[in-house]
Amino acid sequence: MHASRICLALCLASLALPLAAKQKFTWPEGRKAAVSLAYDDALDSQLDNAVPALQKHGLKGTFYIVPARESVRTRMEEWRAVARMGHELGNHSIIHPCSAHGPGREFVPPHQDLDRLSVAQMKEQVEVADVFLQALDGYTGPRTYTAPCGDRNASDGDYIKAVADRFAGIKMVGGDVVPDMHALDPAAVPAAVPTEVTGKQLIALVEQAGRKGTMVGFTFHGVGGDYLSVSKEAHEELLAFLAANRDKYWTTTFLEQMQWVRKQQEVQGNKKGR
Q1: Where is the signal peptide (predicted)?
Q2: What CATH class is the domain 29-267?
Q3: pTM of the entire structure?
Protein backbone atom coordinates (compact mmCIF):
# COMPACT_ATOMS: atom_id res chain seq x y z
CA MET A 1 0.00 0.00 0.00
CA HIS A 2 2.79 2.38 0.94
CA ALA A 3 4.59 1.72 -2.35
CA SER A 4 1.35 2.29 -4.28
CA ARG A 5 0.87 5.66 -2.62
CA ILE A 6 4.42 6.68 -3.47
CA CYS A 7 3.90 5.63 -7.08
CA LEU A 8 0.64 7.57 -7.28
CA ALA A 9 2.28 10.67 -5.81
CA LEU A 10 5.13 10.48 -8.30
CA CYS A 11 2.72 10.09 -11.20
CA LEU A 12 0.68 13.10 -10.10
CA ALA A 13 3.84 15.15 -9.67
CA SER A 14 5.04 14.24 -13.15
CA LEU A 15 1.71 15.32 -14.60
CA ALA A 16 1.87 18.63 -12.75
CA LEU A 17 5.35 19.53 -13.96
CA PRO A 18 4.42 20.34 -17.58
CA LEU A 19 1.48 22.45 -16.37
CA ALA A 20 3.70 24.39 -13.97
CA ALA A 21 6.28 24.95 -16.68
CA LYS A 22 3.61 26.19 -19.10
CA GLN A 23 2.34 28.72 -16.59
CA LYS A 24 5.74 30.36 -16.26
CA PHE A 25 6.27 33.02 -18.92
CA THR A 26 9.07 35.41 -18.06
CA TRP A 27 10.15 38.79 -19.37
CA PRO A 28 13.76 40.05 -19.34
CA GLU A 29 15.16 41.02 -15.95
CA GLY A 30 11.99 39.93 -14.18
CA ARG A 31 9.79 42.65 -15.62
CA LYS A 32 6.03 42.32 -15.23
CA ALA A 33 4.96 42.94 -18.83
CA ALA A 34 6.04 44.19 -22.25
CA VAL A 35 4.80 47.39 -23.88
CA SER A 36 5.05 48.04 -27.61
CA LEU A 37 4.90 51.64 -28.83
CA ALA A 38 4.12 51.50 -32.54
CA TYR A 39 3.36 54.29 -34.99
CA ASP A 40 1.62 53.57 -38.29
CA ASP A 41 1.71 55.26 -41.69
CA ALA A 42 4.94 57.33 -41.40
CA LEU A 43 3.17 60.58 -40.50
CA ASP A 44 4.71 64.03 -40.12
CA SER A 45 3.48 64.37 -36.53
CA GLN A 46 5.41 61.25 -35.62
CA LEU A 47 8.67 62.81 -36.73
CA ASP A 48 7.76 66.16 -35.21
CA ASN A 49 6.34 64.98 -31.88
CA ALA A 50 6.62 61.23 -31.22
CA VAL A 51 10.31 60.74 -32.03
CA PRO A 52 11.51 63.64 -29.83
CA ALA A 53 9.35 62.35 -26.96
CA LEU A 54 10.78 58.84 -27.28
CA GLN A 55 14.31 60.23 -27.35
CA LYS A 56 13.62 62.41 -24.32
CA HIS A 57 12.61 59.38 -22.26
CA GLY A 58 15.10 56.90 -23.70
CA LEU A 59 12.41 54.58 -25.07
CA LYS A 60 12.36 52.61 -28.33
CA GLY A 61 9.42 52.51 -30.71
CA THR A 62 8.45 50.84 -33.97
CA PHE A 63 7.48 52.90 -37.01
CA TYR A 64 5.47 51.19 -39.74
CA ILE A 65 6.50 52.84 -42.98
CA VAL A 66 4.33 53.25 -46.08
CA PRO A 67 6.80 54.08 -48.89
CA ALA A 68 4.11 55.67 -51.06
CA ARG A 69 3.35 58.36 -48.47
CA GLU A 70 4.43 61.95 -49.14
CA SER A 71 6.07 62.18 -45.72
CA VAL A 72 8.43 59.36 -46.67
CA ARG A 73 9.45 60.91 -49.98
CA THR A 74 9.98 64.39 -48.56
CA ARG A 75 11.58 63.43 -45.22
CA MET A 76 13.50 60.29 -46.09
CA GLU A 77 16.71 61.34 -44.35
CA GLU A 78 14.78 61.95 -41.15
CA TRP A 79 13.37 58.42 -41.31
CA ARG A 80 16.89 57.10 -41.81
CA ALA A 81 17.89 59.01 -38.70
CA VAL A 82 15.02 57.39 -36.78
CA ALA A 83 16.51 53.98 -37.57
CA ARG A 84 19.98 55.13 -36.51
CA MET A 85 18.51 56.16 -33.14
CA GLY A 86 17.66 52.50 -32.53
CA HIS A 87 13.99 52.55 -33.41
CA GLU A 88 12.52 49.81 -35.59
CA LEU A 89 11.24 50.44 -39.11
CA GLY A 90 8.46 47.96 -39.77
CA ASN A 91 6.62 46.81 -42.89
CA HIS A 92 3.18 48.29 -43.60
CA SER A 93 3.00 47.42 -47.34
CA ILE A 94 3.75 49.82 -50.21
CA ILE A 95 0.41 51.62 -50.67
CA HIS A 96 -1.58 50.66 -47.53
CA PRO A 97 -4.41 48.58 -49.08
CA CYS A 98 -7.59 48.27 -47.01
CA SER A 99 -11.01 46.88 -47.73
CA ALA A 100 -13.23 49.66 -49.08
CA HIS A 101 -16.36 47.90 -47.88
CA GLY A 102 -18.11 48.64 -44.62
CA PRO A 103 -18.88 51.77 -42.62
CA GLY A 104 -16.16 54.38 -42.36
CA ARG A 105 -14.16 53.08 -45.32
CA GLU A 106 -14.98 55.90 -47.71
CA PHE A 107 -11.35 57.03 -47.48
CA VAL A 108 -10.08 53.97 -49.40
CA PRO A 109 -9.54 54.82 -53.12
CA PRO A 110 -10.23 52.13 -55.74
CA HIS A 111 -6.55 51.45 -56.45
CA GLN A 112 -5.95 50.75 -52.73
CA ASP A 113 -9.00 48.53 -52.27
CA LEU A 114 -7.81 45.23 -50.83
CA ASP A 115 -10.94 43.54 -52.14
CA ARG A 116 -9.65 44.14 -55.68
CA LEU A 117 -6.14 42.81 -55.06
CA SER A 118 -5.04 39.18 -55.11
CA VAL A 119 -3.01 37.33 -52.52
CA ALA A 120 -0.12 37.25 -55.00
CA GLN A 121 -0.29 41.03 -55.45
CA MET A 122 -0.27 41.62 -51.70
CA LYS A 123 2.60 39.20 -51.22
CA GLU A 124 4.59 41.12 -53.82
CA GLN A 125 3.74 44.43 -52.12
CA VAL A 126 5.02 43.16 -48.81
CA GLU A 127 8.20 41.78 -50.36
CA VAL A 128 8.96 45.03 -52.20
CA ALA A 129 8.29 47.02 -49.03
CA ASP A 130 10.93 44.93 -47.26
CA VAL A 131 13.43 45.79 -50.00
CA PHE A 132 12.62 49.48 -49.61
CA LEU A 133 13.10 49.30 -45.84
CA GLN A 134 16.44 47.56 -46.27
CA ALA A 135 17.56 50.40 -48.54
CA LEU A 136 16.37 52.85 -45.90
CA ASP A 137 18.00 51.35 -42.80
CA GLY A 138 20.40 48.64 -44.02
CA TYR A 139 18.82 45.94 -41.85
CA THR A 140 18.69 42.50 -43.50
CA GLY A 141 17.08 40.36 -40.80
CA PRO A 142 13.43 39.50 -40.18
CA ARG A 143 11.05 42.39 -39.61
CA THR A 144 7.57 42.82 -38.21
CA TYR A 145 4.38 43.76 -40.03
CA THR A 146 1.16 45.56 -39.25
CA ALA A 147 -1.76 44.76 -41.54
CA PRO A 148 -3.23 48.03 -42.88
CA CYS A 149 -6.61 48.63 -41.25
CA GLY A 150 -6.28 45.19 -39.68
CA ASP A 151 -7.65 43.65 -42.90
CA ARG A 152 -6.34 40.31 -44.09
CA ASN A 153 -8.67 39.09 -46.86
CA ALA A 154 -7.70 39.87 -50.44
CA SER A 155 -9.96 39.10 -53.39
CA ASP A 156 -8.98 35.44 -53.43
CA GLY A 157 -8.09 34.63 -49.84
CA ASP A 158 -6.18 35.47 -46.67
CA TYR A 159 -2.93 37.13 -47.70
CA ILE A 160 -1.55 37.18 -44.14
CA LYS A 161 -1.10 33.40 -44.33
CA ALA A 162 1.01 33.90 -47.45
CA VAL A 163 3.42 36.35 -45.80
CA ALA A 164 3.47 35.23 -42.16
CA ASP A 165 6.64 33.15 -42.47
CA ARG A 166 8.80 36.15 -43.38
CA PHE A 167 7.96 38.12 -40.21
CA ALA A 168 8.91 37.74 -36.55
CA GLY A 169 5.52 39.14 -35.62
CA ILE A 170 2.39 40.60 -37.17
CA LYS A 171 0.08 43.09 -35.48
CA MET A 172 -3.63 42.88 -36.19
CA VAL A 173 -5.93 45.73 -35.19
CA GLY A 174 -8.34 44.74 -32.43
CA GLY A 175 -8.00 43.95 -28.76
CA ASP A 176 -5.37 45.48 -26.54
CA VAL A 177 -3.86 43.46 -23.67
CA VAL A 178 -2.76 39.94 -24.64
CA PRO A 179 -4.75 37.54 -22.44
CA ASP A 180 -2.31 34.59 -22.51
CA MET A 181 1.27 34.58 -23.78
CA HIS A 182 1.27 30.81 -24.24
CA ALA A 183 -1.68 30.94 -26.62
CA LEU A 184 -0.48 34.01 -28.51
CA ASP A 185 -0.10 33.57 -32.26
CA PRO A 186 2.88 35.71 -33.38
CA ALA A 187 1.10 36.22 -36.70
CA ALA A 188 -1.97 37.73 -35.00
CA VAL A 189 -0.85 39.93 -32.12
CA PRO A 190 -3.64 42.24 -30.91
CA ALA A 191 -3.04 45.97 -31.13
CA ALA A 192 -4.96 48.83 -29.58
CA VAL A 193 -5.45 51.92 -31.76
CA PRO A 194 -5.94 54.75 -29.25
CA THR A 195 -7.54 58.00 -30.39
CA GLU A 196 -8.64 60.95 -28.28
CA VAL A 197 -7.72 59.21 -25.03
CA THR A 198 -6.09 60.44 -21.86
CA GLY A 199 -2.70 59.43 -20.58
CA LYS A 200 -4.39 57.77 -17.62
CA GLN A 201 -6.41 55.55 -19.94
CA LEU A 202 -3.25 54.45 -21.73
CA ILE A 203 -1.46 53.79 -18.46
CA ALA A 204 -4.41 51.71 -17.24
CA LEU A 205 -3.85 49.27 -20.12
CA VAL A 206 -0.16 48.99 -19.23
CA GLU A 207 -1.04 48.20 -15.63
CA GLN A 208 -3.59 45.63 -16.79
CA ALA A 209 -0.87 43.89 -18.81
CA GLY A 210 1.33 43.98 -15.72
CA ARG A 211 -1.31 42.20 -13.66
CA LYS A 212 -1.65 39.52 -16.33
CA GLY A 213 2.10 39.22 -16.93
CA THR A 214 1.54 39.60 -20.68
CA MET A 215 1.97 42.47 -23.14
CA VAL A 216 0.10 45.40 -24.61
CA GLY A 217 0.66 46.92 -28.02
CA PHE A 218 -0.26 50.50 -28.84
CA THR A 219 -0.62 51.41 -32.50
CA PHE A 220 -0.61 55.19 -32.72
CA HIS A 221 -1.21 57.24 -35.82
CA GLY A 222 -1.16 60.99 -35.37
CA VAL A 223 0.52 62.39 -32.25
CA GLY A 224 -0.60 65.97 -31.74
CA GLY A 225 -1.67 66.21 -35.38
CA ASP A 226 -2.63 64.32 -38.56
CA TYR A 227 -5.47 61.77 -38.12
CA LEU A 228 -6.62 59.13 -35.62
CA SER A 229 -4.60 61.20 -33.23
CA VAL A 230 -3.77 61.31 -29.57
CA SER A 231 -2.70 64.53 -27.92
CA LYS A 232 0.95 65.26 -27.25
CA GLU A 233 0.01 65.51 -23.57
CA ALA A 234 -1.52 62.01 -23.37
CA HIS A 235 1.41 60.54 -25.28
CA GLU A 236 3.88 62.33 -23.00
CA GLU A 237 2.11 61.11 -19.86
CA LEU A 238 2.32 57.50 -21.05
CA LEU A 239 6.00 57.77 -21.96
CA ALA A 240 6.88 59.46 -18.68
CA PHE A 241 5.16 56.62 -16.81
CA LEU A 242 7.01 53.96 -18.79
CA ALA A 243 10.35 55.71 -18.26
CA ALA A 244 9.74 55.97 -14.52
CA ASN A 245 8.78 52.28 -14.36
CA ARG A 246 11.24 50.74 -16.80
CA ASP A 247 12.17 48.16 -14.17
CA LYS A 248 8.56 46.87 -14.31
CA TYR A 249 7.64 47.26 -17.98
CA TRP A 250 9.80 46.24 -20.93
CA THR A 251 9.35 48.96 -23.55
CA THR A 252 11.37 48.21 -26.65
CA THR A 253 10.85 47.51 -30.34
CA PHE A 254 8.14 45.07 -31.35
CA LEU A 255 10.79 43.04 -33.18
CA GLU A 256 12.85 42.53 -30.04
CA GLN A 257 9.77 41.62 -28.04
CA MET A 258 8.55 39.06 -30.57
CA GLN A 259 11.97 37.46 -30.84
CA TRP A 260 11.85 37.00 -27.07
CA VAL A 261 8.27 35.67 -27.20
CA ARG A 262 9.16 33.11 -29.85
CA LYS A 263 12.11 31.84 -27.84
CA GLN A 264 9.93 31.49 -24.75
CA GLN A 265 7.24 29.66 -26.71
CA GLU A 266 9.80 27.32 -28.27
CA VAL A 267 11.23 26.44 -24.86
CA GLN A 268 7.75 25.70 -23.54
CA GLY A 269 6.63 23.77 -26.60
CA ASN A 270 4.08 26.31 -27.76
CA LYS A 271 5.73 27.44 -30.97
CA LYS A 272 3.33 29.05 -33.46
CA GLY A 273 3.73 30.77 -36.80
CA ARG A 274 7.32 30.70 -38.03
Answers
A1: 1-21
A2: alpha beta
A3: 0.89
Task: Please name the residues in contact with 115: beta carbons below 8 A apart, sequence gap of 6 or more.
Answer: 99, 100, 101, 153, 154, 155
